[in-house]
Specification:
- 60% of the residues lie in helices and 11% in strands.
- It is built from 8 helices and 5 strands.
- It has helices spanning 2-16, 26-38, 50-57, 72-77, 96-104, 124-132, 145-149, 152-217, and strands at 18-22, 43-47, 84-88, 115-119, 137-140.
- Helix 1 packs across helix 8 and helix 3 (50-57) runs parallel beside helix 5 (96-104).
Length: 218
């Protein structure tokens, strides 16, 4: 039963896992949409430029004064969350590497979100540059379902965090419940024995006092 519940929770977490995809090629976006759907990731947002991605994340220079309103916490409150960002490397206006640098820059609210770079060109120096710049993975196009399987650990991270937090909460609740039971049991025991125990103590004290008075009068 516990295994079944864990599987159900895992599926729910995967369904709520949200991927932000940035790619100017409509065919590549459609392909990735199908691959994500087949890999049990139901929630994804597709944008066609790095500038739109920055605006979506609240990282545009013009939106700095609104950064607090588009922080991860505020987006989550509005039902929006970004767990993974996938971006093409070659895009007009802003490359995927430039987008990566903006996301990973000091002070960015999204610097801890994993970023995956995609490219149709297998250039070792470019791959090394992106990985050293903070990219989690560098995938070659056209993407296949096996490429998405490499990202499965990221899909499951929210579930793992939820499980650990849920386990900790249950442990704390169990500890508090045990302490409360111990207190209640101790109180009930004291309450149950108080009348009789008090009477015996008072009777014994009276006898001792009487004997001492008699002894002193001799």
């Amino acid at each position: 039963m516990e295994f079944v519940n864990s599987q159900m929770l895992k599926q729910q977490q995967q369904q709520h896992f949200h991927v932000l995809v940035v790619d100017d090629n409509v065919i590549d976006r459609k392909l990735l949409e199908r691959l994500l759907r087949d890999s049990s990731c139901k929630a994804a947002t597709f944008l066609d430029s790095g500038v739109k991605a920055l605006k979506y994340l609240g990282l545009l220079d013009d939106d700095i004064h609104n950064a607090s309103s588009t922080s991860p916490e505020s987006l989550q409150q509005n039902g929006i969350n970004v767990n993974l960002i996938m971006t093409d490397y070659c895009m007009p206006g802003m490359s995927g590497y430039d987008l990566l640098k903006r996301i990973k820059q000091q002070g960015s609210s999204w610097k801890d979100v994993p970023v995956v770079i995609m490219s149709s060109e297998n250039i070792p120096s470019r791959i090394s540059m992106c990985l050293e710049g903070g990219a989690e993975e560098f995938l070659l196009k056209p993407l296949q379902l096996s490429d998405l399987k490499k990202l499965q650990p990221h899909f499951l991270k929210p579930f793992d965090h939820f499980s650990e937090q849920d386990s900790a909460d249950r442990s704390i609740a169990s500890h508090n419940h045990t302490n409360n039971n111990d207190k209640n049991n101790s109180f009930n025991k004291t309450k149950a024995m108080s009348p009789e125990h008090g009477f015996k103590l008072q009777f014994a004290s009276t006898i001792v006092t009487t004997i001492l008075r008699f002894w002193n009068s001799l």
